[in-house]
Amino acid sequence: MKTEDELQSWIALWRVSGVGSKSFQKLLSNIVDPDSVFSSNMSTLTQAGISEKLAHAILDAKKDQETVAPDIEWLNEADDHHIITIQCEEYPELLKRISDPPPLLYVHGQLSLLKDPQIAIVGSRNPTQGGTNNAYEFAKHLGQTGFCITSGLAMGVDGSAHTGALEVEAPTIAVIATGIDRVYPAKHREMAHKIADHGAIVTEFPIGTQPKSSNFPRRNRIISGLSYGTLVVEAAQQSGSLITARLAMEQNREVFAIPGSIHNPLARGCHKLIRQGAKLVETAQDIMEEMASAIDLNSLLSDQQISSSSANEKSTNNKEAFEADSASSKPNKENQAIDSNQNTHTDDDQQIILKEMGFDPISIDQLVVRTGIDTASLSASLLMLELQNQIASNGGGTYTRLK
């Protein structure tokens, strides 16, 4: 764990406008630590691989107590408040292996859970009743067998997955797209408190970060990056859940999908994933069998948990009522309540990216040079454009314009 003085330098650099996980990684690789970054000159910073614009922002930034005061105050409020860096022993090894791991994590709850075996459960914010039940039942059974259930605290499938885990007192992690001091949607405030008490809430965003549409796809890499596998319960063809699944595949993690009726629009995303190589699953046991080769299930499961899992395993069409949080699966205008003013800059960036991209494959580094947009903002805009089906990821960090 970093000392508070060291941590202040990390937070101050992370708070510089335009610094993202990839640019932070470049700086660490070439200049060792944030303290040295702040004491570097323009030449040293640009030689580390960042733009002059970002270098100016770093040189102009304040590395003082006022800049990081909200984060340090939150950290010192309670014993279960944690801020860890990628160099800390507590940082999860699986997440460290992805191409752009977050340099800092804010954690409210049990820090040790981040290293426990996790299964991510994601899907539609407005699932069918069958999708709601499936998310709940899969989370419950996987939780009973020893997995930590990881999701995004969103309405619909996310909320059902968290609730299923909490129902059987299994650990669950919520990866959020705001500051750790915010709960979005507000309707899940009580659920967030329960998760913090029995699991953990995790974010890469500094204290005070408000909901912003581009941050939600960005956090998906953390959901998949923490997990051995990702289960997609229900998803439309242009769903953010498919981004999570694609990221999981790029991270060499398992992807599972539940099939549905050909007449259900929310099954089409899952069917698309299955055609692309995702494992078709009908029960939690299907996932357990697939994961047996990846992790030591004998150390994960106690004899009591194994017998409980075998006795309770049932069809995902089980009609057991899920009433405690059924409201969380219904459409809610709060999902669209993100301040539209925050998206203006992102929309402008998207138009610039499309103009400069062309229809040939192009890398993120090339786009940074062509557009002048910093890496963090560029990555967020690329995810949004992919969700809008205007561009496609080719793998290997390159993209192609479709329209």
TrEMBL record:
Domain (Smf/DprA SLOG): residue spans on this chain: 83-291
Compositional bias segments (type: Polar residues): 326-344
Residue ranges of the region described as Disordered: 306-346
Residue ranges occupied by any DprA winged helix domain in the UniProt entry: 344-397
A biological process term (GO) from this entry: DNA-mediated transformation
Family, similarity comment: Belongs to the DprA/Smf family.
Protein name per UniProt: DNA protecting protein DprA
Organism in which the protein naturally occurs: Cocleimonas flava
Organism lineage: Bacteria, Pseudomonadati, Pseudomonadota, Gammaproteobacteria, Thiotrichales
